Amino acid sequence: MTSLGSTRTRAFLRLLTSIGTSRTQDTLKLLPFVVMAVVALIDFGSGPTSGLLPLLALGPAFASVACGLTRTTVVGVVAFALCIVLGLYNDILWMPRTNITMVAILGVTVASVLASAGRLRHENQLADVRSVAEAAQRVLLRPVPRRAGPGIGVAVSYTSATAEARIGGDLYEVVSTPHGVRIIVGDVQGKGLEAVETAAVVLGAFREAAHDEGTLQGVVARLENALTRELSGEQFVTAVLAEIGAGSAITVVNCGHPPPMVLGGDGGIWFADPPDEALPLGMSSLETSRPQPYRIPFEPGDQVLFYTDGVIEARDGAGEFYPLAERAHLLDGADPQGSLDALRADLLRHVGRPLGDDAAMLLLRHRAAHRTSSTSSAA
Protein backbone atom coordinates (compact mmCIF):
# COMPACT_ATOMS: atom_id res chain seq x y z
CA MET A 1 0.00 0.00 0.00
CA THR A 2 2.88 2.38 0.80
CA SER A 3 4.51 1.72 -2.58
CA LEU A 4 1.23 2.28 -4.39
CA GLY A 5 0.64 5.48 -2.46
CA SER A 6 4.11 6.86 -3.25
CA THR A 7 3.67 6.00 -6.93
CA ARG A 8 0.32 7.78 -7.03
CA THR A 9 1.84 10.78 -5.26
CA ARG A 10 4.65 11.10 -7.80
CA ALA A 11 2.19 10.76 -10.69
CA PHE A 12 -0.05 13.43 -9.14
CA LEU A 13 2.87 15.83 -8.73
CA ARG A 14 3.88 15.32 -12.36
CA LEU A 15 0.28 16.02 -13.41
CA LEU A 16 0.21 19.26 -11.39
CA THR A 17 3.50 20.34 -12.95
CA SER A 18 2.23 19.69 -16.46
CA ILE A 19 -1.03 21.50 -15.71
CA GLY A 20 0.87 24.50 -14.33
CA THR A 21 3.08 24.62 -17.42
CA SER A 22 0.09 24.30 -19.76
CA ARG A 23 -1.79 27.11 -18.00
CA THR A 24 1.25 29.38 -18.20
CA GLN A 25 1.55 28.79 -21.93
CA ASP A 26 -2.16 29.43 -22.47
CA THR A 27 -1.94 32.66 -20.47
CA LEU A 28 1.03 33.90 -22.48
CA LYS A 29 -0.80 33.15 -25.74
CA LEU A 30 -3.87 35.13 -24.61
CA LEU A 31 -1.88 38.04 -23.18
CA PRO A 32 -1.36 39.89 -26.52
CA PHE A 33 -5.10 39.95 -27.21
CA VAL A 34 -5.89 41.04 -23.65
CA VAL A 35 -3.39 43.92 -23.87
CA MET A 36 -4.75 45.11 -27.21
CA ALA A 37 -8.35 44.85 -26.00
CA VAL A 38 -7.57 46.94 -22.90
CA VAL A 39 -5.79 49.58 -25.00
CA ALA A 40 -8.71 49.73 -27.45
CA LEU A 41 -11.34 50.05 -24.73
CA ILE A 42 -9.48 52.82 -22.95
CA ASP A 43 -8.88 54.66 -26.22
CA PHE A 44 -12.54 54.38 -27.23
CA GLY A 45 -13.54 55.79 -23.87
CA SER A 46 -11.02 58.59 -23.52
CA GLY A 47 -10.78 59.81 -27.08
CA PRO A 48 -7.82 61.05 -29.13
CA THR A 49 -6.18 62.81 -26.19
CA SER A 50 -5.18 59.54 -24.45
CA GLY A 51 -2.25 58.82 -26.76
CA LEU A 52 -2.45 55.04 -26.15
CA LEU A 53 -2.22 53.88 -29.77
CA PRO A 54 1.55 53.12 -29.58
CA LEU A 55 0.78 50.57 -26.85
CA LEU A 56 -0.89 48.36 -29.48
CA ALA A 57 2.65 47.36 -30.48
CA LEU A 58 2.83 45.41 -27.19
CA GLY A 59 0.52 42.81 -28.75
CA PRO A 60 2.97 41.38 -31.32
CA ALA A 61 5.86 41.93 -28.91
CA PHE A 62 4.21 39.71 -26.27
CA ALA A 63 3.16 37.19 -28.95
CA SER A 64 6.78 36.47 -29.83
CA VAL A 65 7.33 35.06 -26.32
CA ALA A 66 4.98 32.08 -26.60
CA CYS A 67 3.23 32.07 -29.99
CA GLY A 68 4.19 30.53 -33.29
CA LEU A 69 4.82 32.37 -36.53
CA THR A 70 1.21 32.35 -37.72
CA ARG A 71 -0.26 33.49 -34.42
CA THR A 72 2.36 36.24 -34.04
CA THR A 73 1.58 37.49 -37.55
CA VAL A 74 -2.16 37.44 -36.83
CA VAL A 75 -1.61 39.46 -33.64
CA GLY A 76 0.41 42.03 -35.63
CA VAL A 77 -2.35 42.29 -38.25
CA VAL A 78 -4.98 42.72 -35.52
CA ALA A 79 -2.89 45.45 -33.85
CA PHE A 80 -2.49 47.27 -37.17
CA ALA A 81 -6.24 46.97 -37.91
CA LEU A 82 -7.12 48.29 -34.45
CA CYS A 83 -4.82 51.25 -35.02
CA ILE A 84 -6.66 52.10 -38.23
CA VAL A 85 -10.10 51.66 -36.63
CA LEU A 86 -9.18 53.79 -33.62
CA GLY A 87 -7.64 56.40 -35.92
CA LEU A 88 -10.86 56.62 -37.94
CA TYR A 89 -12.97 56.70 -34.79
CA ASN A 90 -10.91 59.56 -33.30
CA ASP A 91 -10.47 61.28 -36.68
CA ILE A 92 -6.67 61.17 -36.44
CA LEU A 93 -5.95 58.44 -39.00
CA TRP A 94 -3.51 60.32 -41.21
CA MET A 95 -1.99 62.53 -38.57
CA PRO A 96 1.79 62.17 -38.15
CA ARG A 97 1.66 60.45 -34.75
CA THR A 98 -0.85 57.89 -36.06
CA ASN A 99 1.31 57.21 -39.10
CA ILE A 100 4.33 56.76 -36.86
CA THR A 101 2.33 54.35 -34.67
CA MET A 102 1.35 52.23 -37.68
CA VAL A 103 4.95 52.09 -38.87
CA ALA A 104 6.03 51.09 -35.34
CA ILE A 105 3.43 48.31 -35.23
CA LEU A 106 4.63 46.98 -38.58
CA GLY A 107 8.25 47.10 -37.43
CA VAL A 108 7.52 45.40 -34.12
CA THR A 109 5.47 42.74 -35.92
CA VAL A 110 8.32 41.91 -38.31
CA ALA A 111 10.81 41.79 -35.43
CA SER A 112 8.46 39.63 -33.37
CA VAL A 113 7.98 37.14 -36.21
CA LEU A 114 11.76 36.87 -36.60
CA ALA A 115 12.18 36.48 -32.83
CA SER A 116 9.47 33.83 -32.74
CA ALA A 117 11.19 31.91 -35.54
CA GLY A 118 14.47 32.01 -33.63
CA ARG A 119 12.78 30.89 -30.42
CA LEU A 120 11.10 27.94 -32.14
CA ARG A 121 14.40 26.94 -33.73
CA HIS A 122 16.14 26.96 -30.35
CA GLU A 123 13.28 25.02 -28.76
CA ASN A 124 13.63 22.33 -31.41
CA GLN A 125 17.37 22.19 -30.82
CA LEU A 126 16.81 21.92 -27.07
CA ALA A 127 14.34 19.07 -27.63
CA ASP A 128 16.98 17.25 -29.70
CA VAL A 129 19.61 17.79 -27.01
CA ARG A 130 17.25 16.49 -24.33
CA SER A 131 16.53 13.36 -26.33
CA VAL A 132 20.27 12.74 -26.70
CA ALA A 133 20.75 13.38 -22.96
CA GLU A 134 18.04 10.87 -22.12
CA ALA A 135 19.73 8.29 -24.33
CA ALA A 136 23.06 9.04 -22.63
CA GLN A 137 21.40 8.65 -19.25
CA ARG A 138 20.09 5.20 -20.16
CA VAL A 139 23.61 4.15 -21.14
CA LEU A 140 25.52 5.85 -18.34
CA LEU A 141 23.12 5.47 -15.41
CA ARG A 142 21.09 2.49 -16.50
CA PRO A 143 18.38 1.11 -14.19
CA VAL A 144 19.76 -1.06 -11.41
CA PRO A 145 18.15 -4.35 -10.35
CA ARG A 146 15.66 -3.98 -7.51
CA ARG A 147 17.09 -7.05 -5.84
CA ALA A 148 20.73 -7.74 -5.00
CA GLY A 149 20.17 -11.30 -3.84
CA PRO A 150 17.61 -13.26 -1.84
CA GLY A 151 15.70 -10.85 0.39
CA ILE A 152 17.94 -7.83 -0.40
CA GLY A 153 16.21 -4.80 -1.93
CA VAL A 154 17.93 -1.99 -3.84
CA ALA A 155 16.79 1.60 -4.44
CA VAL A 156 18.57 4.49 -6.16
CA SER A 157 18.09 8.24 -6.42
CA TYR A 158 19.93 10.79 -8.53
CA THR A 159 19.51 14.55 -8.55
CA SER A 160 21.63 16.58 -10.96
CA ALA A 161 22.76 20.07 -10.00
CA THR A 162 22.66 21.14 -13.65
CA ALA A 163 19.34 22.68 -14.65
CA GLU A 164 17.21 20.39 -16.83
CA ALA A 165 19.87 17.66 -16.74
CA ARG A 166 19.47 14.13 -15.49
CA ILE A 167 23.09 13.11 -15.41
CA GLY A 168 26.22 14.69 -13.99
CA GLY A 169 29.43 13.84 -12.20
CA ASP A 170 27.99 11.37 -9.69
CA LEU A 171 27.75 7.70 -10.59
CA TYR A 172 26.40 4.39 -9.33
CA GLU A 173 26.10 0.82 -10.55
CA VAL A 174 24.99 -2.60 -9.28
CA VAL A 175 26.36 -5.67 -11.06
CA SER A 176 25.71 -9.37 -10.41
CA THR A 177 28.97 -11.29 -10.82
CA PRO A 178 30.31 -14.78 -10.06
CA HIS A 179 31.90 -13.22 -6.96
CA GLY A 180 28.62 -11.79 -5.65
CA VAL A 181 26.74 -8.56 -6.21
CA ARG A 182 29.15 -5.67 -6.58
CA ILE A 183 28.30 -2.00 -6.16
CA ILE A 184 29.99 1.30 -6.82
CA VAL A 185 28.91 4.81 -5.82
CA GLY A 186 31.24 7.64 -6.77
CA ASP A 187 31.68 11.36 -7.32
CA VAL A 188 33.81 12.89 -10.06
CA GLN A 189 35.67 16.07 -9.28
CA GLY A 190 34.22 18.96 -11.24
CA LYS A 191 31.02 19.42 -13.21
CA GLY A 192 29.72 19.57 -16.72
CA LEU A 193 30.44 17.40 -19.72
CA GLU A 194 33.99 16.64 -18.62
CA ALA A 195 32.69 15.15 -15.37
CA VAL A 196 30.11 13.10 -17.29
CA GLU A 197 32.85 11.77 -19.57
CA THR A 198 34.97 10.74 -16.58
CA ALA A 199 31.97 9.08 -14.94
CA ALA A 200 31.45 7.07 -18.14
CA VAL A 201 35.07 5.89 -18.02
CA VAL A 202 34.72 4.76 -14.39
CA LEU A 203 31.43 2.96 -14.97
CA GLY A 204 32.70 1.24 -18.11
CA ALA A 205 35.82 0.02 -16.34
CA PHE A 206 33.83 -1.10 -13.28
CA ARG A 207 31.28 -3.08 -15.30
CA GLU A 208 34.09 -5.02 -16.92
CA ALA A 209 36.39 -5.44 -13.92
CA ALA A 210 33.58 -6.45 -11.55
CA HIS A 211 33.17 -9.69 -13.53
CA ASP A 212 36.87 -10.39 -14.08
CA GLU A 213 38.56 -9.54 -10.78
CA GLY A 214 38.38 -11.88 -7.81
CA THR A 215 38.69 -9.12 -5.18
CA LEU A 216 37.51 -5.55 -4.78
CA GLN A 217 41.13 -4.45 -4.57
CA GLY A 218 41.61 -5.89 -8.06
CA VAL A 219 38.61 -3.89 -9.27
CA VAL A 220 40.08 -0.74 -7.75
CA ALA A 221 43.40 -1.39 -9.54
CA ARG A 222 41.56 -1.71 -12.85
CA LEU A 223 39.73 1.56 -12.23
CA GLU A 224 43.02 3.27 -11.44
CA ASN A 225 44.52 2.02 -14.71
CA ALA A 226 41.52 3.25 -16.70
CA LEU A 227 41.62 6.68 -15.06
CA THR A 228 45.37 6.98 -15.52
CA ARG A 229 44.83 6.71 -19.26
CA GLU A 230 41.94 9.20 -19.32
CA LEU A 231 42.45 11.80 -16.60
CA SER A 232 44.72 14.81 -16.87
CA GLY A 233 46.07 17.26 -14.34
CA GLU A 234 44.75 16.93 -10.80
CA GLN A 235 41.38 15.32 -11.51
CA PHE A 236 40.18 12.52 -9.28
CA VAL A 237 37.13 10.42 -8.39
CA THR A 238 36.01 9.52 -4.89
CA ALA A 239 34.26 6.16 -4.74
CA VAL A 240 33.08 3.43 -2.44
CA LEU A 241 32.92 -0.14 -3.73
CA ALA A 242 30.95 -2.90 -2.00
CA GLU A 243 30.44 -6.62 -2.44
CA ILE A 244 27.49 -8.62 -1.16
CA GLY A 245 28.53 -12.23 -0.98
CA ALA A 246 27.57 -15.18 1.14
CA GLY A 247 27.16 -14.49 4.83
CA SER A 248 25.77 -11.59 6.83
CA ALA A 249 28.24 -8.83 5.97
CA ILE A 250 29.12 -6.44 3.13
CA THR A 251 32.76 -6.05 2.08
CA VAL A 252 33.64 -2.42 1.39
CA VAL A 253 36.59 -0.58 -0.11
CA ASN A 254 36.48 3.19 0.38
CA CYS A 255 38.54 5.46 -1.88
CA GLY A 256 38.23 8.86 -0.23
CA HIS A 257 34.42 8.79 -0.28
CA PRO A 258 31.92 9.65 2.50
CA PRO A 259 31.32 6.51 4.60
CA PRO A 260 28.10 4.52 4.17
CA MET A 261 25.36 5.06 6.74
CA VAL A 262 24.21 1.86 8.43
CA LEU A 263 20.72 1.55 9.89
CA GLY A 264 20.63 -1.46 12.18
CA GLY A 265 17.57 -3.61 12.58
CA ASP A 266 17.63 -2.70 16.28
CA GLY A 267 17.25 1.02 15.46
CA GLY A 268 20.92 1.97 15.76
CA ILE A 269 22.45 4.37 13.22
CA TRP A 270 26.17 4.69 12.55
CA PHE A 271 28.61 5.57 9.78
CA ALA A 272 30.94 2.82 8.58
CA ASP A 273 34.24 4.71 8.43
CA PRO A 274 37.17 2.84 6.83
CA PRO A 275 39.92 1.65 9.17
CA ASP A 276 42.49 3.69 7.23
CA GLU A 277 42.15 6.83 5.13
CA ALA A 278 42.65 6.26 1.40
CA LEU A 279 43.12 8.65 -1.50
CA PRO A 280 40.52 8.98 -4.25
CA LEU A 281 40.82 7.15 -7.55
CA GLY A 282 43.14 8.82 -10.02
CA MET A 283 45.71 9.72 -7.37
CA SER A 284 47.56 6.40 -7.25
CA SER A 285 50.90 8.11 -7.85
CA LEU A 286 50.58 9.75 -4.42
CA GLU A 287 49.55 6.61 -2.56
CA THR A 288 51.85 4.80 -0.20
CA SER A 289 49.41 1.89 0.26
CA ARG A 290 46.29 0.51 -1.35
CA PRO A 291 42.85 1.05 0.24
CA GLN A 292 42.05 -1.89 2.48
CA PRO A 293 38.72 -3.74 2.44
CA TYR A 294 36.62 -3.89 5.60
CA ARG A 295 33.30 -5.46 6.49
CA ILE A 296 29.94 -3.98 7.47
CA PRO A 297 27.44 -6.17 9.32
CA PHE A 298 24.35 -6.76 7.20
CA GLU A 299 21.89 -8.78 9.23
CA PRO A 300 18.19 -9.25 8.52
CA GLY A 301 16.47 -5.90 9.12
CA ASP A 302 19.61 -3.82 8.41
CA GLN A 303 19.94 -1.10 5.79
CA VAL A 304 23.03 0.51 4.26
CA LEU A 305 22.85 3.88 2.51
CA PHE A 306 25.60 4.86 0.07
CA TYR A 307 25.60 8.52 -0.96
CA THR A 308 27.72 11.30 -2.43
CA ASP A 309 28.84 14.51 -0.74
CA GLY A 310 26.12 16.43 -2.56
CA VAL A 311 23.77 15.00 0.08
CA ILE A 312 25.64 15.78 3.29
CA GLU A 313 27.01 19.11 2.02
CA ALA A 314 23.63 20.47 0.91
CA ARG A 315 22.88 23.68 2.85
CA ASP A 316 19.64 25.45 3.63
CA GLY A 317 19.14 29.21 3.52
CA ALA A 318 20.81 29.59 6.92
CA GLY A 319 23.89 27.65 5.82
CA GLU A 320 23.05 24.50 7.81
CA PHE A 321 24.16 21.19 6.33
CA TYR A 322 21.58 18.50 5.69
CA PRO A 323 21.31 16.36 8.87
CA LEU A 324 21.37 12.94 7.20
CA ALA A 325 21.49 10.89 10.40
CA GLU A 326 18.57 12.82 11.90
CA ARG A 327 16.44 12.11 8.83
CA ALA A 328 17.30 8.42 8.66
CA HIS A 329 13.83 7.56 10.01
CA LEU A 330 12.45 8.48 6.58
CA LEU A 331 13.93 5.21 5.33
CA ASP A 332 11.60 3.16 7.54
CA GLY A 333 8.91 2.81 4.87
CA ALA A 334 7.81 -0.59 3.60
CA ASP A 335 9.16 0.00 0.08
CA PRO A 336 12.89 0.81 -0.35
CA GLN A 337 12.37 3.05 -3.39
CA GLY A 338 9.48 4.90 -1.77
CA SER A 339 11.58 5.43 1.36
CA LEU A 340 14.52 6.78 -0.63
CA ASP A 341 12.20 9.06 -2.60
CA ALA A 342 10.94 10.46 0.71
CA LEU A 343 14.52 11.15 1.82
CA ARG A 344 15.28 12.87 -1.48
CA ALA A 345 12.16 15.03 -1.20
CA ASP A 346 13.19 16.02 2.33
CA LEU A 347 16.67 16.93 1.06
CA LEU A 348 15.19 19.22 -1.59
CA ARG A 349 12.88 20.82 0.98
CA HIS A 350 15.86 21.43 3.26
CA VAL A 351 17.77 23.23 0.50
CA GLY A 352 14.73 25.08 -0.86
CA ARG A 353 16.38 25.73 -4.22
CA PRO A 354 18.31 23.80 -6.89
CA LEU A 355 21.16 21.77 -5.41
CA GLY A 356 24.65 23.18 -5.66
CA ASP A 357 26.12 19.73 -6.38
CA ASP A 358 24.90 16.44 -7.79
CA ALA A 359 23.40 14.11 -5.19
CA ALA A 360 23.27 10.34 -5.65
CA MET A 361 22.01 7.78 -3.13
CA LEU A 362 21.85 4.00 -3.22
CA LEU A 363 20.01 2.06 -0.52
CA LEU A 364 20.47 -1.62 0.33
CA ARG A 365 17.86 -3.24 2.56
CA HIS A 366 17.90 -6.72 4.03
CA ARG A 367 14.19 -7.33 3.65
CA ALA A 368 13.84 -10.13 6.17
CA ALA A 369 12.52 -8.84 9.51
CA HIS A 370 12.84 -5.20 8.42
CA ARG A 371 12.64 -2.62 11.18
CA THR A 372 9.12 -1.94 12.37
CA SER A 373 9.81 0.59 15.09
CA SER A 374 6.68 2.59 14.38
CA THR A 375 4.56 -0.57 14.33
CA SER A 376 5.94 -1.91 17.58
CA SER A 377 5.51 1.43 19.33
CA ALA A 378 1.89 1.59 18.23
CA ALA A 379 1.29 -1.92 19.57
Automatic annotation (TrEMBL):
Ranges in coiled-coil conformation: none
Organism: Streptosporangium longisporum
Keyword Membrane in annotation: yes
Descriptive protein name: PP2C family protein-serine/threonine phosphatase
TM spans (from-to): 30-49, 61-88, 100-120
Entry-linked InterPro entries: Bact_Sigma-Reg, PPM-type-like_dom_sf, PPM-type_phosphatase-like_dom
Domain PPM-type phosphatase: 152-366
Matching Gene3D superfamilies: PPM-type phosphatase domain
PANTHER family: STAGE II SPORULATION PROTEIN E, STAGE II SPORULATION PROTEIN E-RELATED
Keyword match Hydrolase: yes
Keyword entries, A-Z: Hydrolase, Membrane, Transmembrane, Transmembrane helix
